[in-house]
Design brief:
Radius of gyration: 24 Å
Strand order of the largest sheet: 5-4-7-1-9-12-2-13
Shape: globular
Strand content: 15-25%
Largest sheet: 8 strands, mixed
Distance between the termini: 74 Å
Structural class: alpha/beta
Helix content: 25-40%
């Protein structure tokens, strides 16, 4: 009221033309300030081992958990693909892998003629008057942060996992792989790649960027190599470490086709890790890296608060897919099971209820339309996800759609409130009742009494799937004329499963 009165007295003392000029200057800036900022935190290879998701009983993630308390966490959220490039392409374009044909680690979607004109999320926000910033891994690899890319207006450090130790730490079998390593490093936290990119984001926030802004922070860990300093490993003493529950006969009732999704990878099978005595050390390193990355999330969130930007900033935190650490007898991703598809998804800020826990199925595909709604921007007709706005206002709101994950053409998982249904390209199937079988140990697909459940889930499978985009490679599985190929090389029908 005082401000209105002050304006009234001032306007009576100036010419009418000057008043109109002042008004013309003031109105658009009020409109711009009314748009909330966006802090977009993407994490690489983080499964559901986060405190607010109860994924591991010992994990320590106070900053992500605090963000969930300040906003709403989706406890049944799933990625669109259990692999970096197709997952991130889906999140940032709003399209399913089955619609883009991006199934593997390549191609970059801008190199595909049919996709190069898609308006990606940061580009759309820039077109709506946002200043866009990015550091770390947002799109796959360094795409979007290269000199000739135009995805963001201001770019910071690219991701890196250094500095590396001089010698390999983990005593692992097979061909040495720089990424496939883990352990304690002697460097300081401040020297680690994720610390540096978090520091860049903090620097931008400290500089009070012009609002509205869209700041993307792509955290590398817990992607391998799993290196962290001693203080983070000390949070998880080896003698009391809880390992994931496994069954030695777990794959006896899963189709052979399930192996094709992770046929020939640098990630080790559980039996290999156990033979090398490295299973526990990998689990410990993964947990240590989670706690370190959580501390970097905390540093960025603290800068947001310290600069009085929290109240007008929508924060969304997500991971591109999960990661197995022995479950289903493997490590790594590239599966259609819960540990590979379930991911953290947290929203906080204006328009989001505090302390919300939504158990309705949600997809990373929903991030794009949700941010448009929260920021009061025009919708886009070509997005295949659905806004989570109703659940962000009331976590108990019913949601019509399930979550669907695609691992190469023809392989899909449909996740509803209580069930996971998987159908592979050769027609083989899996079905799990997550209420009774949270570890997915008992495949029910062969039981006639569940035919209705299967039919209900199959109706959500895509009616049309495009073939792999030109230039597809990197963990690409194809099934044609009854034959299976892995990255273009046919797998003989009776080939032994690698690594077993």
């Amino acid at each position: 009221m005082r401000r209105t009165g002050w304006r009234g007295r001032a306007f009576r003392s100036v010419p009418a033309a000057a008043v109109l000029l002042m008004f013309a200057w003031w109105v658009p800036r009020v409109g711009a300030a009314a748009k909330p900022n966006v802090l977009f935190i993407a994490i690489d290879d983080l499964n559901d081992w986060v405190g607010c998701l109860d994924g591991h009983p010992q994990v320590k993630t106070p900053h992500i958990d605090g963000l969930a308390q300040r906003g709403t966490v989706f406890t049944n959220a799933h990625c669109q693909a259990p692999l970096c490039n197709p997952s991130r392409t889906s999140v940032l374009t709003g399209r399913r892998p089955s619609s883009t044909g991006v199934y593997g680690l390549s191609p970059w979607f801008r190199d595909v003629p049919a996709l190069k004109k898609l308006v990606a999320l940061p580009e759309y926000f820039a077109g709506q008057g946002y200043r866009t910033f990015a550091t770390g891994k947002i799109f796959h690899r360094h795409f979007g942060l290269r000199d000739n890319d135009k995805e963001f207006q201001v770019v910071g450090p690219k991701y890196n996992d250094g500095p590396h130790p001089e010698r390999r730490i983990a005593a692992l079998p097979g061909k040495p792989n720089r990424n496939n390593d883990w352990g304690v490093v002697s460097s300081r936290d401040e020297e680690r790649g994720d610390w540096k990119l978090a520091s860049w984001a903090i620097e931008k926030l400290n500089g009070k960027p012009p609002e509205p802004f869209f700041l993307s922070v792509g955290i590398r860990l817990p992607h391998v190599p799993l290196f962290a300093t001693r203080r983070w490993f000390d949070l998880y003493p080896e003698d009391s470490l809880v390992l994931p529950p496994v069954r030695r006969d777990d794959r006896d009732d899963t189709p052979r086709f399930s192996w094709y999704l992770h046929w020939d990878l640098p990630e080790h099978r559980l039996v290999q890790l156990e033979a090398a005595g490295e299973w526990k050390s990998q689990v410990r390193a993964y947990l240590a890296c989670i706690s370190f990355l959580d501390s970097q999330v905390g540093r960025v969130l603290e800068a947001l608060r310290r600069n009085e930007l929290e109240e007008n900033t929508v924060v969304v935190l997500w991971s591109d897919h999960g990661w197995h650490l022995g479950e289903k007898l493997i490590t790594g991703k590239n599966t259609l099971w819960e540990r590979s598809t379930r991911v953290p998804l947290v929203f906080a800020g204006p328009g989001v209820a505090k302390g919300g826990r939504c158990s309705r199925p949600a997809e990373l595909l929903d991030v794009y339309p949700t941010l448009l709604e929260l920021c009061r921007l025009p919708g886009k007709d070509d997005l295949e996800g659905h806004s989570l706005g109703p659940q962000l206002r009331d976590a108990a709101t019913v949601r019509e759609w399930p979550a669907m994950t695609t691992a190469n053409r023809g392989n899909h998982a449909v996740r509803t409130a209580h069930w996971r249904y998987i159908r592979y390209a050769d027609g083989s199937q899996e079905l799990y009742d997550l209420r009774k079988d949270p570890n997915e140990w008992h495949n029910l697909a062969g039981e006639d009494r569940h035919a209705g459940i299967i039919a209900e889930h199959r109706k959500w499978l895509p009616k049309r799937e495009v073939p792999p985009a030109p230039g597809s490679r990197g963990r690409v599985v194809e099934f044609r004329n009854g034959k299976v190929s892995w990255d273009g090389k046919e797998i003989p029908k009776d080939s032994p499963i690698p690594g077993l």
